[in-house]
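Lab notebook, bench 4. Still working through the backlog of constructs that have no structural model yet. Next entry is a single chain of 150 residues. Request: give me the structure tokens for it.
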Amino acid sequence: MKRFSEFRVGDKFFSTCSISEKELDEYFNFSRVKNAFLEDYGSKKRQMVSGRAALSRMEGEFTRLNQIYGNHIIFIGTDGDPDWDYRSTRFLKPLHTDEVLKLQYTISGKEEIDEDYGKIAVDFEAINKEGEKVLVSHKNLYRIKKEPPR
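Model written out:
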């Protein structure tokens, strides 16, 4: 686990993930999302994954990285990207259940908050097996305790 003082703008971390049909169903049950398009998958085809489910999984994978896990860290929002009219996330290609994504996390900002906490901004990027970007999300903000518990 890295401490706040060890993070540098430009640091990159990597992972992979996929979302199973069961996991997507659990997400829909929890989030109470109702979307006929996403629910109409009665054939045995792979189901399309909602963008928010994909983004949620990416954040979950971020918190599980060896460099992050163990820190007291909490998602506090997004600042958005000035090049995108301050929007933060783009869903660029469809994602389907069981599709494996390569994930890249880049530290894009770091600030002091007070003597106990700092703030890091993290950019997310998901790439499918064809090498195409599926999801890009900029300036996801996390408050992080400077000295994690021992």
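Notes after review: The longest helix spans residues 51-64. The helical segments are 21-31, 36-39, 51-64. Flag for follow-up if needed.
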